[in-house]
Prior knowledge:
globular; UDP-N-acetylmuramoyl-L-alanine:D-glutamate ligase
Amino acid sequence: MFEQIFENVRHKSPLIHNITNYVTVNDCANMLLACGGSPIMADDLEDAVEITAICGGLNINIGTLNQRTVPVMFAVGKRANELRHPVVLDPVGAGASRLRTDTALGLLEKVRFSVIRGNISEMKALALGSGTTKGVDADGADRVTEDNLEEVIWFAENFAKKIGTVITITGAIDIVTDGERAFCIRNGRPEMSSITGTGCQLSALTAAFVTANPERVLEAAAAAVCAMGLCGEIAYRRMTDLDGNSSYRNYIIDAMYRLTPAELEKGANYEVR
């Protein structure tokens, strides 16, 4: 299943418009190129709406919000909906500040998203209207474990049904659900949390996978999560005693560049509930 999804990404090379944060913008662009997609970044109102019209999908990331870019996110989201383009939201740090939370909630109200990807704390902030996060990371009390997995699946499925979109919650165990089926994914390495931007890269990756597979949004989102986690595993095996988190970041992008659809199919570690 995931083999064909990844083959579609490689074959179609979807052009993805990214409004992302300035911390990880370069890594997001390189991850899209590595998976076979094509990135374009535009966040000025006079430019962005036209740019999104020529793309196949849109990735909105609220990691470094400012008063100039917030209206752009609403405008391009509306335009992408008019064109029936897939739209991914990464609500970075929702719950950490009023601006982030209000912007994310406003986007949910005005824009129809294909996938929302974030950590459990960010998702709770969206579902409840407020929350607690450790900056842009999940609050320690919210971490997904085997002990609370069923509870988190129940939360994710109900949230997905309520807003009518695929929900991707990433953490030690990743959950991807449309409200009816839930993929529980166990790819990845804990060391990936030492790199700024693996989540942002995954959101860009998700946009490419969904854009190349518009009829299989749930499966495409799950495939993107498996691919990112698998590349984290492959990259970690390459690490030496002299390597650190900067090398690890580059190795993950390299692993995605060299990953084959057959390797993804074989290495994806998930169950469906």
